[in-house]
Automatic annotation (TrEMBL):
Signal sequence, start to end: none
Xref: PANTHER family: DIGUANYLATE CYCLASE DGCM-RELATED, REGULATORY COMPONENTS OF SENSORY TRANSDUCTION SYSTEM
Transmembrane portions of the chain: 44-63, 241-267, 274-298, 310-333, 340-361, 367-388, 395-415, 421-441
Alphabetically ordered keywords of this record: Membrane, Transmembrane, Transmembrane helix
Protein name listed in UniProt: Diguanylate cyclase
SUPFAM superfamilies per record: Galactose-binding domain-like, Nucleotide cyclase
Pfam families named among the record's database cross-references: 7TMR-DISM_7TM, GGDEF
Species for this entry: Desulfosporosinus fructosivorans
Length: 662
């Protein structure tokens, strides 16, 4: 509550405590409602401003990434003699490109050196029209060439190479440094390969000629998809170790999250949100093994390239869909099943592609990018609705998914060779932000449930203590009054009244919490004997505090009495209705299956939604949220009640005025 709220509440309470005319009190209540409505509108306004600002920022950042410069290299040459090599340098820009020729450094020293076909932008692929002045077929061979100068202060020049599609030989100053895979223009002699390497370069001169022979005869796109990184070997190795350490920490943390929430699901099998989050964490950890520093290739270098490719495709196809299902399990009121089916349907097609060779799968990469972007737009739309409807934790979830979308956009642009910005391994950072935010939301929900259970237990203990005290005082008083047969008869009547009072709630006349707990225990004993299940329904009046704050506690009491009578009229003769606490009610339905309990709860919900309660000329409309559960063999009483309460809490998160089955 803000300072304005508190000040207004104090003034309102003081004025109401005075014996003012009813017309003035009604005017005061109307003013209070107006203040709350204005504050609600203010909250909605700043949420709209936040959403528009973040979307505008996303568009701006995307445009900047696309329109960034082409890099350091121009016309196949770069002068790095003035660069301080405390940091490494990405060799981005226009390299010399020779199509359909596997040239060696000796070919460039011939009397008639080969004529360059075009310049080719790195990073990029040669079939991309944006990368070079010409568009080349995706399958074939080519030679890249670069000449560079570096300062004499650099004593240990080295080159970091990764993600060359899909086999290559690398020469430096005429010497063959490494061959990854088997380079050939014939399929019989070709073999793809992938390694993340840091290679020593000649240091006898400050001039380097770098030549890559690249062959791609199986994948959809070929070329230098990642820019080679030039610098001090010591610096490059330190950067790689830091990245690897961070990545392993990230993988370990996410994998622990996955195990924890899977165990939580096993203990609460109705908690589908925990299961989806566990799967999301597992997919993220698995994908991170082949991303960035590629720990899988470092620790298990003999794992076939095709296996890594399948992991890449499997996790890439399913990461966003599982994230969508997880978010929608929290904000169930913000989507339609038909729309969701259309959004997720393409994922089934891509999953079916996993039955085909990796080379064939790679032909559909561009379509995958389109699907992922559309799915991310959809989930952002769902979260925007949740933010505008002021759902719990919606702003945090929106910002986390927003960061992840930016990471996906940067990743797609980078691998499409668009723009010059390369935020290294932003995929990892985006995923980590999402996982942390989602973990916080999950933890907060569990904390709220635990807090509510503790409060219930404290109230129950306090009620028992007060009941025992009252019974002791009344018994002592009544025993002192017994002196004759008439007094004994009167005492019996008083005892019956006292016994009834100990079982019921004084305001509503319903059974109280202590008595209904005894009834539930009897049903558990009966179930063990005849195996006839029973159902529990916990119902809560929506926004009851606002009714008390707006119209007064007398009006709130009137609402409780009307609701209590409505519940009693709706149930069968053998059913029990109790006031569970505050504005909550518990219904015990013997020999009832889950479907029967759901139908009853839905009928009651509809009756209450249409009912108008009148109080002193004021018409009040209310709704209720219901959590429904049926007992199971392995459960104790507390487990069954907790499941019903969890279902009620989920209904509150979904927007209230609904029936949720545990």
């Amino acid at each position: 509550m803000t300072g304005v709220d508190k000040s207004w509440a104090l003034m309102h309470g003081w004025l109401v405590s005075l014996r003012l005319p009813s017309r003035f009190k009604t005017k005061l209540q109307d003013n209070n409602w107006g203040v709350k409505k204005a504050m609600k509108n203010t909250g909605l306004t700043w949420r709209i401003v936040l959403i528009i600002s973040l979307i505008t920022l996303m568009i701006y950042v995307t445009v900047r990434m696309v329109s960034s410069g082409s890099g350091l290299i121009d016309d196949g040459k770069v002068d790095l003699s003035s660069v301080d090599f405390q940091k490494s340098v990405a060799l981005n820009g226009d390299w010399e490109f020779y199509w359909n020729r596997l040239l060696t450094p000796n070919d460039f020293r011939a009397v008639q050196p080969p004529i360059m076909d075009s310049l080719m932008e790195v990073p990029g692929t040669w079939d991309d029209g944006e990368a070079g002045s010409k568009v080349y077929p995706p399958h074939g061979v080519a030679t890249y060439r670069l000449r560079l100068n570096y300062p004499s202060s650099l004593k240990d020049p080295a080159l970091s190479i990764q993600n060359v599609a899909s086999a290559y030989k690398f020469y430096a100053n005429g010497r063959l440094i490494v061959e990854v895979g088997k380079v050939s223009d014939k399929l019989s002699g070709f073999k793809d390969g992938e390694e993340s390497l840091i290679l020593d370069l000649p240091n006898d001169t400050q001039e380097l000629e770098l030549v890559f022979q690249v062959a791609n005869l199986n994948y959809a796109r070929g070329g230098l998809r990642e820019s080679p990184i030039f610098g001090s070997k010591q610096v490059l190795e330190r950067q790689k170790m830091i990245l690897l350490a961070l990545q392993l920490f990230f993988i370990g943390s996410i994998f622990i999250f996955s195990i924890y929430y899977f165990l939580l699901f096993l203990l609460q099998t109705n908690n589908k949100t925990a299961l989806l989050f566990s799967i999301l964490c597992f997919i993220t950890a698995l994908r991170s093994l082949i991303w960035g520093a590629a720990p899988l290739a470092i620790f298990f270098p003999n794992v076939p390239l095709d296996v890594r490719a399948y992991i890449n495709y499997l996790t890439g196809y399913n990461l966003v869909p599982v994230m969508i299902l997880f978010v929608l399990s929290i904000y169930t009121m913000e989507y339609k099943k038909t729309t969701l089916g259309l959004v997720l349907l393409p994922t089934l097609f891509f999953d079916a592609l996993l039955l085909t060779p990796p080379g064939f799968i790679s032909l559909f990469t561009n379509y995958l990018y389109v699907m992922v972007l559309l799915q991310m737009i959809y989930i952002l739309g769902v979260l925007i609705k949740a933010v505008l409807h002021q759902r719990d934790n919606a702003i945090l979830m929106f910002i986390a998914i927003y960061v992840f979308v930016l990471a996906i956009i940067e990743d797609i642009l980078h691998y499409k060779g668009l723009g010059g910005i390369n935020i290294s391994h932003m995929f990892l950072y985006g995923n980590f932000a999402v996982i942390l935010a989602m973990s916080f939301v999950q933890a907060k929900q569990q904390a709220n449930i635990h807090k509510k259970l503790v409060l219930y237990n404290e109230n129950l203990v306090e009620a028992d203590r007060l009941k025992d005290k009252i019974m002791a005082n009344e018994m002592s008083f009544l025993q002192a009054q017994i002196s004759s047969a008439s007094q004994i008869t009167s005492l019996q009547s008083d005892m019956e009244k006292l016994e009834w009072a100990s079982k019921t709630d004084s305001l509503t006349g319903l059974y109280n919490r202590r008595h209904i707990m005894g009834k539930i225990e009897n049903e558990f004993i009966s179930y063990k004997r005849n195996k006839k299940k029973f159902a529990l329904i916990i119902a809560d009046i929506d926004f009851f505090k606002e009714i008390n704050d707006t119209y007064g506690h007398d009006c709130g009491d009137r609402v409780l009495k009307v609701i209590s009578k409505g519940l009693q009229d709706a149930v069968r003769e053998q059913d029990f209705v109790s006031r569970w606490g505050g504005e909550e009610f518990l219904l015990l339905l013997p020999e009832t299956e889950i479907e029967g309990a759901r139908i009853l709860a839905e009928r009651i919900r509809g009756i209450i939604e249409e009912q108008i309660i009148e109080y002193n000329g004021i018409q009040v409309s209310i709704t209720m949220t219901f959590g429904v559960v049926v007992n199971e063999d392995y459960e104790i009483i507390e487990d069954t009640i907790k499941k019903a309460d969890n279902a009620l809490y989920e209904g509150k998160n979904r927007g209230r005025n609904c029936v949720i089955l545990a």
